[in-house]
């Protein structure tokens, strides 16, 4: 399976952290089915700690309890995901998501649960035990749950095959694997083994690697093992992180497309950090959100909504459902930056892409601190004749050999040129 | 002036080193006019040391004599460029080149001649003297002729303006400025001053910066000051250098186009190193030369022939005049690598580009040591339907959703897909 | 307590690795009491894994069993240390060592046992549990037994106090703490806490830090927390490692003395690696062993014999009991290198020291590959008059203002000058 | 010749910069002969630019004129050193200095004068010319006068031999060679050649290398080529630079003694920067000056006074003529730091040394910002019995096993312990 476009969906992390529940997932899925599905949004992803009965907030509990089956595989915490009781795992929830016409994803950590190792639990399909495939010094720096798996040990392949076989049997469509994308070259062998196990499990499942920043010099490895990989550490609603994404996207854009989706991370829009109080809304200004969606779209990053969908406001909904912008996300090809220049004190950044439907895209960003009034010549993207087109967010038309526009501070505009 | 395509031409360095003469230049220009011009080749560039009466081979002479005018500007050595006598400079030679329908370029070193500094010569348009604008510790590491110019000193701007004014008056079309591209950030101010002086001189002259490797983090500076810049140190006929260019091109491809031409350096084809004996021919195999032209063309590097044109053999001439390949050089847009993979022991490298005429280009390189028999799916460049097209070097046609081909070791094929 | 001279003793690692037993310890102690004690040798140290019932050879067993008391403290494996049965710990063995007029030391790992953490065992004197003070991502890279302790957590200080209180109650005189010396600055807080707990336990115990190389920029921290610290990774019987020690000693010599003992590691002499076969003897030549003892002595490194004492041959015994050399080890002050020079193709290295008894020491090493015939002027150590003295290893006398000598390849001579 | 103690003298740089004159030198020499000679001060050194007729202040003039003889050697500017007229060079001035019972030194730059190179002047004893031994790209970064000499070229040795032969014939006793100490490894060959030429010239001349920081890993090279070398860039009257010297001295102390004198640079005391106004006096407090003299003395740095001697005030004179302190400078052996500790918020630094006369030195520095009241145990320098002694600056006596003292902020005390 090669994804012909970057995945679009919702992920529970930004709003619910480690304490997402089945109820939350169902309600967000229902909202997506009703309001977003027709625009291309389809994945519903349960993020980290779904097997921990006592997980709270965005922090991890050292040596906390996980729900683990007899074969050393994490399974959902039944108190949080009631439909998983009686050994059903995520199958009932996946079935419900599918019934809405959507796809279902889950988060996993690289490795094998510590508790399974210390209890010497079995490995399905092998006579080895958990402690015989674990690497005691391959420990995630920020989450206490797992030991890395030693890919060279008998039983290691069987373990990963059994994991993905189980999740495939539940109907999982998307695996976000954590503690793996930037852990190279140390964990390269484990990544390869994990990828082979996943792709051999008999069900098409998207493989998404976290956390970033991924290593540019390992681009080919990511392409050959995964569908998408994070090019940044966790992205949150701060301008500095958004600004920094221009450089990251510049480095990775040549690796985007044809089943390879460098991932600029979730969109912290709307209602985020729900567990920390009612008033938590993205700190991004509306212009910054437009910049984010424009950059993610022309760069063709995966689009994963981080906000609680049921509390979506009008602006956010409009932001996520602009058909012209989402068409750029789908049809842009060979995207790349054109230039970054100081113009009257503001840094202006220009990106362009071809459209697979014919024509060109042009995105113009104002990374400066004041309104920018500028003119961009089409010759900057090697178009040497007059053209017509329109701005994507507003629909406003233009014609001629150059575009004259005003862009607010931290804002963006994008054009389709025919 | 913004160059709508990467310059194509001939440069005297690879074959004649520091001892190129007017006779050599005229004969190469005549050959170009007769055999190459119709394919787009147009620049004839006199490389380094043309002002040194005693220059020999590819080495430099410490503290050797240069021909310098009263205003501290280097002028041609009359014994080597007889038409420059009586203060005419390169005007007669430029006029002859123009009469052939071609363009004329010269090499310069950043800075002001040491001899002028030590003799305290005048600066045109300023009451300062050469020693007052020179930086005694800004000395090229490999050539003894110049001191850097201190851009902050009165007289510095006048000096560079007078230099380019003189060369413009001769009819120069192309300046290859040396000891500047990789000397950043130390020499950034001098580069900016030099660029401003050149672009204000009243004549369109291409500005080409050497030597490489240019610094990727200074990409925007190059774009704003120059037309082309070297992304590599001197390129010669060794496979290791050619192989290395895939990585360099990968980094720079997003900065190519619309007047910005990252430069993979001269093509050491045919008869090179003429001053060192009759038998000097490129060490590249024919397949390697095809790889070189294919990569330079899809990447849209400037194309500067390094070999002595009058000794051009049939293979070399065919290599340089394949209209299909040169059309890719002209029309490719948004070029970028797709993947690099080991396939049956050979590293295969895939590049793609859009064509400004519609359609796509696909180049496939075999960096391995044996013949590669492979199949490339069009879906790898995000084409999900059957297509027709042809191979550029051979004209051979194909149709369908994939291309099956054999590529010799170190060889390449390129396709236009309609 | 401030040690007025660098400790001398025996350590079980080089010969017995992880599988040392009580019987071995007793026999080596008896040998020391009979043959070495009168020369100043006094510490008998049980190295790593004494709490592991199934430990074997020089390797560690991931997730292997340790003997741990209810308060999360490792205690001896009774099958290997029978006298420790019934909760007596090392008290009986320590008592026996003491009865021989010697001192008793044990190895510990920084941290708290993994098993205790996963079983949530108690901490003596605290209501916290092991898992509440462990740092899940502070894991030794080469040994699987412990988690680091988070010095900022309630219970951490109580844990370390209880550990040293227990070991003090057994009569331990020397603690070799592992996984701590080079783990700075990450584990600095834990080192300080551990040192404070040890020094507050009511019994004088030497604190020795491993493994090296210690960080020179942290010299003051080591001085303030410990008695000795390793300046090298594990030292074995290879000339390259011995040669390298000259540079290490040069850097650390200014930090030696007055209770501070940079440690060049154990002496792999005589019978080492006993568990791997009968024929294991040091690979060092006799001259190299003389070089080692000479350098360790003038530098005043701790001296810890690594070989199985009961298999000591005549050469080894003589090497370890030269009273003139051991007197230098005791009385040298302000030791430092004087020069390293190539003389007739051999690198010759000169060290000097004052003697606290008056007079000077001079050590001359031949790091070259052939016999060196050289003359060293006393003026090289700022003695500008004639002197008398003798060579330490041979007792041979000299007089005058210079010393003429022959030194075999990789050999050494040392002089006392009165 | 091997210097048995670190040189002491006066150097013109700190007070007169590049414009020192014969009159200044004579007057300072006369002051030294009258007030300082009996304390061991003996060298009078003319610093940089003495061959430049138009030199001014502490700046250099790019491409300024130097006085150069027909053999490419710089000779004194006659307008500034009148006695050098008629080809006498510094011989008359040296003779006068010698008549005062003092020694005479001069500064030189590594290399050969640019002007001599560009004029292709002769080399004494060789048929080569200046341009044939010069390295065009070996140019001092901060002074425009010279090109480096290519040690591999015929004529290079003859040049340096002729330089030192000339200066020896003048009666020069001390050469401060600049642009060489930290220019390693690039200029290593030139340093070796220069050293050999100097030491073969037939006259004992001290060789002092500048500027620093010298490279610790090249310590043996300095020892084998020179008498002293700068361990710091130019040292001026700023506490930060003084504080930094503790670390530099710590690294270099093992290399001090027996003709090897790591150099902490001139003492900016009394009247400095005389050319910039009458009021220029050192910015160091009196306590800081005591710290400086104490550290320089126990470390045994060369002592070179930077202030204008004829304007010496009482404090400065007392500072430079304390016989107890200067005796430590002469007799200290094997000096090294003992510890650096925060005590009640102040960083206290302890150094010790043996005395060649018997007994020990102890220096205590307060690098903190408030008065420190502390007690230092003699056991910290491995003296385990009661002793008597006295403080060097004050003469105050003490007895017992510890010293209780108060030290002002940035101040120092030093003790001799018998």
Detailed description of the structure:
The structure is a homotetramer of 418-residue chains. By secondary structure, chain A is of the alpha/beta class. Chain A has 2 domains: 8-321, Aldolase class I (TIM Barrel, Alpha-Beta Barrel), CATH 3.20.20; 335-417, Golgi alpha-mannosidase II (Immunoglobulin-like). Chain A is 28% helix and 23% strand. Chain A has 12 helices and 19 strands. In chain A, strand 8 (206-209), helix 8 and strand 9 (228-230) form a beta-alpha-beta unit. In chain A, helix 9 (239-252) runs parallel beside helix 10 (286-299). The longest helix of chain A has 15 residues, at 22-36. Chain A is elongated and about 70 Å long. Chain A starts with 7 loop residues before the first strand and ends with a strand. Chain B binds chain D through residues 62-63, 114-115, 117-118, 120, 131, 134-137, 139-142, 144, and chain D through 62-63, 114-115, 117-118, 120, 131, 134-137, 139-142, 144.
